[in-house]
Amino acid sequence: MQLELYKEVALTRDIAAENLQKGDVATLIDIVPHPLGGEDGAVLEVFNAVGDSIAVIVVPLSAIAPLQPNQMPAVRLLERSVAPYIK
Fold first, then answer.
1. Which of 11, 27, 30, 54 is the most exposed place for a label (fewest CB within 10 A)?
2. How many helices (H) and strands (E) does the chain have?
3. Would you say 43 and 33 are in contact if contact means Cβ atoms under 8 Å apart?
4. Residues 62/39, Cβ–Cβ less than 8 Å
5. Ranges assigned E (strand) in 1-87
6. Pairing mode, strands 64-66 and 8-11
7. From CA 81, how far away is CA 67, in angstroms rounded?
């Protein structure tokens, strides 16, 4: 798996605490070591469909994958708790 900083990645699992779902797309901002020697983490910035930043999260590296040419992004409604400015 070749991950590049500032490139888009896909979540490989749901992140319930952030109301994010497997397949959601985010931008990889940094890769950080686990403070206790566990799996390294990925710092992600998540944007809505019009490019507004809605979250910055840290997930295990195993929770992301690079985008592939045979994948198609999709659009879904966000929960209010993720984007409280949605009317």
1. 30
2. 0, 5
3. no
4. yes
5. 8-11, 25-32, 41-47, 53-60, 64-66
6. antiparallel
7. 26
7, 27 contact by CB (below 8 A): yes
Where helices occur in the chain by DSSP H, the ranges are none
Q: Tokens standing for 42?
A: 């990925």
Six token digits for residue 16: 């319930």
The candidate with the shortest Cα–Cα distance to 73, out of 18, 13, 23, is 23
The neighbour count for residue 17, using CB atoms within 10 Å, is: 8
pLDDT one digit per residue (tens) for the chain, 87 residues: 689 999 999 999 999 999 999 999 999 999 999 999 999 999 999 999 999 999 999 999 999 999 999 999 999 998 765 555 444
Tell me how far CA of residue 25 lies from CA of 33, 34, 35, 66, 76, in angstroms.
Answer: 22, 23, 26, 10, 12
